[in-house]
Amino acid sequence: MDFQTSVRTCLTKKYMTFQGRASRSEFWWFMLAYIIGAMVVMLVPLLPILYALAVFLPLLAVGFRRMQDIGKPGWYFVIPSVYNLALRSFGFGSYELDEATGMPTEMPSVGGALFGGLLSIIGIVIAVVFIWWLTRPSQPETNAYGPPPAA
Length: 151
What we know:
It is a single chain. The radius of gyration is 18 Å and the shape is globular. It folds into two domains: 1-70 and 139-151, no CATH class; 71-135. The mean pLDDT is 85. The longest helix has 25 residues, at 110-134. The chain starts with a helix and ends in a 17-residue tail after the last helix. The chain has helices at residues 3-13, 24-41, 47-69, 79-89, 95-101, 110-134. By secondary structure, the chain is mainly α.
């Protein structure tokens, strides 16, 4: 699947399709389009929020299908996002929270620094595992989520 076909598929034909499977090329071409789009919209205030809302469901759907393509449950795809959201809700790694409140969110104690380091290591491990999973080849045979996608 090429770049244009991937973007067209994810934004129109399979906008909210969580069933089935997505090939590596479908997922990674759409991810590239998402990243390029995110960099472009960052130049205009409020546009990043609208962009995030517009591509949230297609990105989630293609992620679910990609996980299912390698034989993993699709909901695994939300684990990194939930972890990141949980960290931000507690103020870890949130420059925006520092700016909004005018108060630093870092923990000054040694225990806090160690805890923050541990959370960072967990985040890195999660990222590495998911990048590894998302780069695995499709299962060549039909799996619990359907037949293999056409490349």
